[in-house]
Amino acid sequence: MRRLLPLLAALALALLPSGDGADAARPVVADLSNHLVAITTGFSGTHVLAFGATDDRKGDIVMVVRGPRETHVVREKTRLAGIWMNRGGVTFAQVPSYYAVAATAPLSSVAPSEVRKRHQIGLESLALSATDGDGKGLSEAEAKRFRAALIRIKQKAGLYPEKAGTVTTLENRLFRAELFLPATVPTGSYSVEVYFLQDGAVVGAEITPLFVSKTGFSAEVFDFATRHAVKYALATIAFAVLAGWGVALVFRR
Amino acid sequence: MIQVYLPIAEMSVDAALIVALGALVGFTSGLFGVGGGFLMTPLLIFLGIPPSVAVGSGTNQIIASSISGVIAHWRRGNVDVRMGGVLLAGGVAGSLLGVLIFNLLKSLGQIDLAIRLAYVVFLAGVGGLMLVESVISMIRSRGAPASSGPRGVERFAWAARLPMPMRFPKSDLTISAVLPLAMGVVVGILVAIMGVGGGFIMVPAMIYLLGMPTQVVIGTSLFQIIFVTIATTFLQATLNHNVDAVLTILLIAGGILGAQWGARLGAKLGGRHLRILLALLVLGVCVGLVDDLATTPAEPFSVLIARER
Fold first, then answer.
1. Which chain A residues contact residue B12 at CB under 8 A?
2. Residue A240 C-alpha from the chain's centroid
3. Helical H runs in chain A?
């Protein structure tokens, strides 16, 4: 529960109305069905619904979800003496651990590449800076290869979904998009960005927070194991000793 | 399908599958009288559990299975506590060394390879020796009884010159304490890196190297495994944070069921046939791992999130 409190406080703050009177003129408003995804012991992935409305101009909606940024190390196996082993690694700093894009139409038809680059919309436009094991830069070809591998593995794990046509609209005013977070979804604070684009230009944007947090038993175990490692170690040992001893007593012949 | 989220492995698994795996390994250990850790770790890795967590949690599970095993041997007086103590002293030192090596290899990104290579080397060696030995003894089964000459290290001249001779009344042996101490260190390192109890190395070494009588070997090996796995679990949980309590509970639950079933079947089968079967099983796991290391991977890249704890 302790780790949840700051999250709830941040959530309350984010949901407070900004109160600057100009709200009525906002070209796009958006919200989520649920701002807090709780990973409980039985968690096997979940859906979050993003929905909102735009003013009555005709345009496209793009939704970008970014997970907490973390340093990712990508390693490549090469063959050495008949055995495949990891050699060298490439470090990508500040990589979103989760990244999803949904849009009303294919991204290339929604906005030109400069606009997509500026807002980092789409996997192609995602800024990822690579350094090798010694912190030096890499050759362009190498960086490209490792970047492609990182994105491929993330996509395979369901952590980088990119789908066009998954934002549906109603009467040019309302829109909705379903977001799926798989069982392996990283914990932390996410941002859900909704862009309203007209003729390839961003005319409105709205950012809402989303928190993914372990709660209940699994959170308590993780918390206990990291903060009180000695007590956790003793508890797991005590459990195993008692279980083994109990079995010997029960099945005594 | 009952999905359960493993808090340390940070993934959700099918609880029934993990319990079944625990039962399978428990069955094998009940049938053959071995710990089964050498099967548990590779199978957990095969299910997608991170190798590091598979090793840490496997070690924790072995505490339970070796305690329930040792109690039966203790009642029959088949534990050489003095020998166990010497092995244990070496074992705890080895385990500390092993956990540190584990930590270093993990930071170099080579722990996965190290775990697999250690398995290949030891499974091939032990499986091969067991197979040759049981086939030879099967061929000779109607021949003369085994020679009653000097046993184990007593055969080797160099062993007699080692310092610190010690008397082990229960095993009826007088040997240098250096040898069991060194054996303990080697097995302790393996416990930490491979997530096994080490019985599959300790038992043959006790018989062939130390020349201990067969009836006290398994009890003594289990006795020292308890303490070495307790020390290793403690070090893994505090230094490497790779012991998943939820995973351990599921494995122990399955192991309890499987071990009883295996022990019953084991009593019906002959010892010699069991040893050939076990040798083939060990070699089978080994071949699987070699195949895994030598074939071109479908995805040569892997991603690791570097997280500061």
1. 43-44, 183-184
2. 36
3. 5-15, 107-110, 113-119, 140-156, 216-227, 229-250
User: Do A97 and A69 meet the contact criterion of CB atoms below 8 Å apart?
Assistant: yes
C-alpha–C-alpha distance, residues B96 and B108, integer Å: 19
Residues A40 and A88 in one domain: yes
Tokens of B260: 């009883």
The H-or-E segment that residue B116 falls in is helix B111-139
The phi, psi pair for A251, rounded to 5°, reads: -95, 20
Q: Nearest by CB to B12, from A44, A72, A74: name it.
A: A44
Summarised one tens digit per residue, pLDDT across range B101-149 is 988 988 887 887 888 888 888 888 888 888 888 888 778 765 544 444 4
Range of the domain at A233: 215-253
Per CB-CB distance under 8 Å, the chain A contacts of B233 are 233, 236-237, 240
**Are A131 and A241 within one domain?**
no
Domain containing residue B177: 13-139+151-294
CB contact under 8 A, B243 and A153: no
Contacts of B140 (CB under 8 A, 6+ apart): none
Round the average pLDDT of chain B to a whole number and report it: 83
In 3D space, the residue among B258, B242, B262 whose CA is nearest the CA of residue B250 turns out to be B258
ipTM of the complex: 0.82
Q: Are residues A119 and A28 in the same domain?
A: yes
pLDDT level of residue A20 (50, 70, 90 thresholds): very low
Is residue B2 in a domain? no
CB A94 within 8 A of CB A69: yes
Within 10 Å of residue A228's Cβ, how many Cβ atoms? Answer: 13
Do residues A183 and A246 both lie within one domain? no
Measured between beta carbons, the chain B residues lying within 8 angstroms of A153 are 299, 301-303
Q: How many structural domains are present in chain B?
A: 1
Q: Examine residue B5 and state whether it is found in any structural domain, yes or no.
A: no
Q: How many domains does chain A have?
A: 2
* Contacts across the A-B interface (CB distance below 8 Å): 171
Token reading at B45 = 């890795």
A110 shares its domain with A130: yes
Please check whether residues A87 and A196 belong to one and the same domain: yes
Are A187 and A221 part of one and the same domain? Answer: no
pLDDT reading at B247 higher than 80: yes
For residue range A201-221, what is the model confidence (pLDDT) as tens digits? 999 999 999 999 888 887 888
Q: How does pLDDT run across B56-101, given as a tens digit for each residue?
A: 999 999 899 888 888 878 888 888 999 999 999 999 999 999 999 9
Same domain flag for A103 and A221: no
Contacts of B66 in chain A (CB under 8 A): 244
